[in-house]
Design a protein that fits this description.
Layout (H helix, E strand, L loop, with lengths): L9 E7 L7 H11 L4 E7 L5 H10 L4 E4 L13 E2 L1 H6 L4 E5 L2 E5 L2 H9 L10 E5 L3 H12 L4 E6 L2 H10 L7 H4 E5 L3 H4 L5 E4 L23 E4 L6 H8 L3 E3 L2 H16 L5 H9 L2
Parallel strand pairs: 1-2, 1-3, 4-6, 7-8, 7-10, 8-9, 10-11, 11-12
Antiparallel strand pairs: 3-5, 5-6
């Protein structure tokens, strides 16, 4: 079913560069139609050098809300009027609501990750996590896990500086963060696998078929839960499946972060199953 567009139709969208690959328009528009909301959701390709002009245009055109994807998640922050708590800690914004020209930024990636993970692992607070990568996506995942009360996160990255920056930045979120997050080099991953319950890849490694493995995947055990936030079955997930592990790609995170954005914009309960069907349609 398509929306009935008229003079009262509200406009929402996503800005990024590139943005043609985005799956958000199909499932956000389906959600609006499902609840009878007179709105559409459109992709807007915005070059980095045009970001400020685009934000001014959003205000001028009364676009009600929008998502933000790469490469604008960090750069948009100085252009907003108010930031939610999670944006301040994560350092990235992926959702903005326009309140009569007053722009408030949110980050729904943390909520999206946790809600997605709970589909296969309902209880997460008592699990020991290995997070690979220390970029923006990693910060969102860690924020969500700390809010859930997780007590142990082994954080592996190529450079230690980013890990220590995360620990420092999150110290006011939880004063025990120095005990929760344990820094690791990528070459140390295999040594901690015996004590890990959940493995999460937040890097782009695995997106390309020729990418090297993050570690020796034969060391994965059946008891591990394995998550890769890339939107496909990566070699890491293929290895996990062969071992009989619980595993998950990035689509549930995408679904739930979008559902949270929908709730922020409309104040309504998002029709998650409608959105899921629209997202997974060929």
């Amino acid at each position: 079913m398509r929306p009935d567009i008229n003079g009262q139709t509200a406009v929402y969208g996503i800005i990024g560069y590139p943005v043609k690959h985005s799956k958000s328009p199909q499932f956000q528009t389906a959600a609006f139609v499902s609840l009878g909301i007179n709105a559409v959701y459109l992709p807007f390709q915005v070059r980095p050098e045009d970001l400020k002009k685009a934000v001014e245009g959003i205000k001028a055109l009364s676009i009600k809300g929008f998502n933000v994807t790469v490469p604008h998640k960090e750069e948009i922050i100085p252009l907003l009027d108010e930031l939610s708590e999670e944006v301040k800690y994560i350092g990235a914004c992926n959702t903005v609501i326009n309140l009569d020209g007053y722009l408030k930024g949110f980050n729904t990636d943390a909520d999206g990750f946790i809600q997605g993970l709970k589909e296969i692992l309902p209880e997460v607070h008592d699990k020991k996590f290995l997070i690979i990568g220390a970029g923006g996506a990693s910060r969102a995942v860690i924020y969500g896990l700390i809010k859930e009360g997780v007590q142990s996160i082994h954080l592996a990255n190529r450079t230690a500086g980013r890990i220590h920056r995360i620990i420092q930045d999150f110290s006011t979120l939880n004063r025990f963060v120095y005990r929760i997050i344990h820094p690791l080099g990528l070459d140390e991953i295999e040594s901690v696998l015996p004590e890990i319950d959940v493995i999460v890849n937040t890097t782009s490694v695995g997106l390309k078929d020729e990418d090297p493995h993050l570690f020796d995947y034969s060391k994965i055990e059946k008891r591990h839960t394995v998550v890769d936030i890339i939107y496909k079955k990566t070699p890491l997930l293929e290895a996990a499946e062969k071992k009989g592990c619980l595993w998950q790609d990035g689509l549930p995170m995408l679904l739930y972060q979008g559902a949270k954005a929908f709730e922020i914009w409309t104040g309504k309960e998002p029709p998650v199953e409608v959105m899921r069907r629209a997202l997974t349609e060929k």
